[in-house]
Amino acid sequence: MSQQQQPTRQQGDQTSEPIKYGDVLCVKGELGEKAVKPEDAAMMQSAETAVLGKTKKGGPAAVMQSAANVNVSAGLVQPGDVTDVAAREGVTVTGTTVPGANIITESVAGQVVGQYIQPTGAGIQRSRGTAGGGQQEGVTSGGGGGQQQEGGGGGGGAITIGQALEAAAQTIPGKPVDQCDAAAIQAAEVRATGSNVIIPGGVAATAQSAAAYNESMIRDEDKVKLGDVLSSATKMLPADKPATRQDAEGVVGAELRNKPDMSTTPGGVAASVTVAARMNERSQQQQS
Q1: What is the overall mean pLDDT for the chain?
Q2: Long-range contacts formed by 255-262: CB under 8 A, 24+ apart
Q3: Is residue 242 over pLDDT 90?
Q4: Which residues neighbour 11 within 8 Å (Cβ) at sequence distance 6 or greater?
Q5: Is the pLDDT of residue 283 over 60?
Q6: Strand 91-98 vs strand 101-108: parallel, antiparallel, or unpaired?
Q7: Which of 13, 144, 254, 263 is the most buried (most CB within 10 A)?
């Protein structure tokens, strides 16, 4: 699955304006208004290679390289140019492996620009490649996120709702928790436990408290983040189950009902449960 946005204009169009991030990737704010530059693409290629072993055909790095080439050819940017926000905040490619799949998430300056599934062997592994804003690195470790929690069901290797919540925490850990997140997390907890009763001190109650607290905070750095709430989701859930399409639809609906733009957060709670459900469905089809 890819959450990449299709280009909103043809890259070959003659224009006095360079191709910007907002033209070819699903980004907002300051980054969306910035021109795609050669060193930005080089950083993403480096990060993709660190995690995937190569650049992904049609992936964010390839899209950025194409846009940067057009901008250089048009004389709108120079070879070796780098966008200030990309250089400052860096680009990141992370891989979170759950049974049977690796969820790859690519980000530029903290904004998710691509997310897709890469089939893998069994086991839990996390990997990360970064460029700009720090040194490039590659890290893998066993355990975490994939252990069956007490009271829960492992689902025979299928990705559980709790694991999907932890994947969201790993994908966008620095996102401040808002009411959309809290609603999606509550829907996920209900689906996982089979009970409509919100568990005191549980993941849904914690998310609701975090969202209420964050509404009183002005600065993002003072707010409770998604990673703070969901990093131990599997342990906080008294029961768990493999994510299904119906579960994903319920979580997506809860998140959308609280968002004015009616779009789920890339790499967020609804997106992660959806990825898990699709992977489980694919696994079942392969086994049948």
Answers
A1: 80
A2: 255/180, 255/181, 255/183, 255/184, 255/187, 257/183, 258/178, 258/179, 258/180, 258/183, 259/180
A3: yes
A4: 19, 24, 66, 67, 70
A5: yes
A6: antiparallel
A7: 254
Query: In sequence order, which residues have a C-beta less than 8 Å from that of residue 60 and are 6 or more positions away?
Result: 4, 25, 44, 48, 106, 108, 113, 114
Q: Please check the confidence at residue 266 and state whether its pLDDT lies above 90.
A: no
How far apart are the C-alpha atoms of 126 and 124, rounded to whole Å?
7
Q: What's the count of helices (H) and strands (E) in the chain, helices before strands?
A: 12, 4
pTM: 0.57
CA distances for 223 relative to 177, 217, 272, angstroms: 8, 6, 22
| pLDDT confidence tier of residue 9, bands split at 50, 70 and 90 | very low
Where does residue 194 fall: left (phi above 0), alpha (psi -120 to 50 degrees), or beta otherwise? left
In this structure, what are the phi and psi dihedrals at residue 129, rounded to the nearest 5 degrees? -125, 130
Alpha carbons within 13 angstroms on the beta-carbon side of residue 76 total 18
- The answer to whether 104 and 118 have CB atoms below 8 angstroms apart is yes
Residue 33, token pair as written in the block = 């208004």
Q: Which two tokens stand for residue 108?
A: 């530029």
Distance CA 233, CA 283 (A): 23
pLDDT of residue 284: 81
Among 22-26, 126-130, 226-230, the least confident range: 126-130
